[in-house]
Specification:
This protein is mainly alpha-helical. It has helices at residues 4-17, 24-36, 52-68, 78-90.
């Protein structure tokens, strides 16, 4: 389970992933790769090319994922699952 700072970082990332920032697509794809990973603990802690603040949020969330092994949709908050559905519609992963 995420602590408050990790939750805030994840919520920022989910907001950026559906927004119109230069990093939106990279963040959206990182979130979807984490969600679909066979082993969530393998989530990357670094996404090339992200703004510094976004990269810090990715690293913070990735550290929590490696600790707990959760996915966005298994963290027990409906808002995470709802946000992931929106993210998948906005920036679907390439096949």
């Amino acid at each position: 389970m995420l602590n408050q700072l990790e939750h805030e970082a994840l919520m920022r990332l989910m907001t950026y992933a559906t927004g119109h920032t230069a990093d939106s697509q990279r963040i959206a794809h990182w979130l979807q790769e984490w969600e679909r990973a066979e082993n969530p603990r393998t989530a990357k802690a670094h996404v090339p090319g992200l703004a510094a603040a976004h990269a810090l949020d990715v690293a913070k969330v990735a550290k929590a994922v490696k600790r707990d092994g959760d996915r966005p949709t298994t963290l027990g908050r409906l808002e995470y699952a709802y946000n992931m559905q929106n993210i998948e519609r906005v920036y679907p992963l390439p096949h």
